[in-house]
Design goal:
Blueprint lengths: L3 E4 L12 E6 L8 E9 L2 E5 L5 E16 L2 E6 L2 E4 L6 E5 L4 E10 L2 H9 L1 H4 L3 E4 L5 E3 L8 E11 L2 E9 L2 E6 L4 E7 L4 E6 L2 E6 L2 E5 L5 E5 L4 E10 L6 H6 L1 E2 L2
Antiparallel strand pairs: 1-18, 2-3, 3-9, 4-8, 5-6, 5-7, 5-8, 5-9, 7-10, 11-12, 11-21, 12-13, 13-20, 14-19, 15-18, 15-20, 16-17, 16-19
Length: 255
C-alpha cells in the first residue's frame, strides 16, 4: 500500500478584505469514523457546533488567533493549541474582524465501547482540555535520538482510542523504523517541515500543511537531511481500547 496524502487548500485574499472562510474535509474514507476538517478564516467569522454523543471534537490551532466559547467561559487560542471539547457539549469558534486563524478540527466517531469508557470516568470527559503545545509534557522513545523534542499534546484516554503528539528535530536525524498494527496514524507537517517518510516500499516528502496516512501495519520511518527540519503532528487512532496501552509502553514521560 502507498502513503496517501493531501495538501491543505489555501484561499486567494484578493477581493476579500472584510473576511473570508475556507473549509474542507480531508483524507475522506481513509480511517473509519475519523473526520478531519480544516478551517482557514479571516474575521469576522463564527462557527457554532451543537452537542452530540456521536462524536468527540478535538481542535488543533495551528496559527493566528481565535476565541472558543464553551458554556459561559471564553478561551483565547493564539498560535499552537490543542483543545479537547468536553463530551456532548456545544461550543462556538469565533475569529474577530481583521484576525486570521487556521486550525484542524478532528471529529472522532464513538462506538458503544467508547461510550461505556466515557461513563466510567464522566468527570474527566466533562472537562475542557486546553493547552499550548509548548506547555504539553515531553517524552522520549527508543526509536528517536536524544536531540529530538517529543511532546504528548493529547494523552491517551482523554478521548477513547485517540491520542496526539508532536515530533521536532533537525537533520541529520531520523525516527527509526517501526510498526504498530493496533492503530491507524496520520501525520500533519508543521512550519518548515521537510522530511522523508517511508512506509514499506513507499516514500513521500512531508512538508508544511501536508497531511498523510501511514498504511496500517506498515514498517515506517522518517528521516531528515542536514540543514532541514523535521516537525510534525502525529495522530493515533486505535482499533481497540486495549490497544491504547501501546503509548504508555513505548513512551517514557519526562517527569
Amino acid at each position: 500500500m502507498k502513503i496517501n496524502s493531501e495538501i491543505l487548500s489555501t484561499i486567494v485574499l484578493e477581493g476579500k478584505p472584510d473576511g473570508y472562510v475556507n473549509t474542507g474535509k480531508m483524507m475522506a474514507n481513509e480511517i473509519d469514523e475519523v473526520y478531519p476538517e480544516y478551517i482557514i478564516a479571516k474575521g469576522p467569522y463564527k462557527k457554532q457546533i451543537s452537542a452530540t454523543t456521536d462524536y468527540y471534537d478535538v481542535l488543533l490551532s495551528l496559527s493566528g488567533e481565535a476565541s472558543l466559547k464553551v458554556g459561559d467561559t471564553l478561551h483565547i487560542m493564539k498560535g499552537n493549541y490543542i483543545v479537547k471539547i468536553p463530551f456532548n457539549t456545544a461550543y462556538e469558534l469565533k475569529v474577530e474582524q481583521g484576525d486570521e486563524f487556521y486550525c484542524l478540527l478532528i471529529r472522532k466517531g464513538l462506538d458503544e465501547k467508547d461510550l461505556l469508557e466515557i461513563e466510567k470516568e464522566l468527570d474527566m470527559h466533562e472537562n475542557l482540555y486546553f493547552k499550548a503545545f509548548s506547555e504539553c509534557p515531553v517524552y522520549t522513545e527508543e526509536i528517536k535520538s536524544a536531540k529530538t523534542l517529543n511532546r504528548m499534546i493529547l494523552p491517551e484516554r482523554l478521548v477513547p482510542r485517540f491520542c496526539i503528539g508532536t515530533v521536532e528535530t533537525t537533520g541529520p536525524d531520523e525516527v527509526g523504523a517501526h510498526q504498530h498494527p493496533m492503530l491507524e496514524q496520520l501525520f500533519l507537517g508543521l512550519p518548515e517541515c521537510n522530511c522523508k517518510v517511508k512506509a514499506d516500499e513507499s516514500s513521500l516528502l512531508l512538508t508544511e500543511n501536508m497531511i498523510l496516512h501511514i498504511p496500517l501495519g506498515s514498517m515506517h520511518s522518517v528521516s531528515v537531511k542536514e540543514g532541514e527540519k523535521l516537525s510534525y503532528v502525529w495522530l493515533d487512532f486505535f482499533k481497540t481500547i486495549e490497544g491504547q496501552d501501546y503509548i504508555s509502553e513505548q513512551h517514557q514521560m519526562d517527569e
